[in-house]
Request: fold
Amino acid sequence: MTVIDCQDLRKKYKRMAALDGITFQLKDQKITGLIGRNGAGKTTLLKILAGFIRKGSGDVLVFSSNPFNNLRVSGNSILVDDQMSFPDSLTLADILGMAPDFYKRWDTELANNLFKYFKLNPKQLHSRLSKGNKATFNMIFGLATRCELTMFDEPTNGMDEAVRSDFYRALLKDYIAHPRSIMISSHHLAEMEHLLEDILLIHKGKVVFHQSLEEVKEYAVALQGTTDLVEKLAAGKEILHTKQLDSQRNYVVIKKEEMPVIDGVTTQPVSVSDVCMYVTSDGKGGIDDVFK
Ligand SMILES: Nc1ncnc2c1ncn2[C@@H]1O[C@H](COP(=O)(O)OP(=O)(O)OP(=O)(O)O)[C@@H](O)[C@H]1O
Reply:
């Protein structure tokens, strides 16, 4: 089943293009990482998919329907972000108690068990929660809805390291038991990489690639060695990143292709988070370019 189908999706804020022709499809039940630099358009895309804001032009279908103000979409999807708000008069216990009325697959046992594990106070008002506890409660809520399309926008913002690690584990365990389409935008790609099956990388409102994690791991290769040898080997190749290691040695990341073996140059894999950082970087040397 096609869960999401975006074709040339565009959205402008005044004259600024936040989404500039996004095309991708989400077909199977997978955990997809929505990755991109600050301002890439991740939140805008998620809000359109959740039906919170209107698209500009192009097509967007969620469960084969336009998601904006659509009851079928809102009943089967959830966007968990730090702007989730609940009526001020409701305590956390009230919110959990009312959730089954809105989400048909709501799992009360999961919600209660996670709630106890994270030692949240059932009498507290959502608006009074600390940043980290609000993120934790929102995560519990998002997981317990078991929505067919569950989207998290920077879910771990504010969580301490232990809670982040528990969140990743809870998400994975629940997903394995109850597969569904999950999309997570996060700046902590390295620490949640083990969860992801696919990566949708966007930059300046455009899709850079939509690939499996295994494909992204094979996307680039790093060459390290004496500057003249590395430069010779990298000549004519698509260079993604360069770093001068010392006066004689260089480190160059290129798009992966068959490489001849040359004495004095080693080839190394490039991590998924580094690939995403390099291909969305405007300069090739990163912050070092500023100090040249
Ligand atoms: N309500 C708004 N009004 C005007 N411009 C906006 C609005 N919301 C977002 N933008 C702009 O649209 C672009 C995309 O923003 P968006 O929040 O979607 O990016 P993001 O990838 O989620 O960024 P970050 O990782 O920093 O949260 C940015 O340039 C942002 O300034």
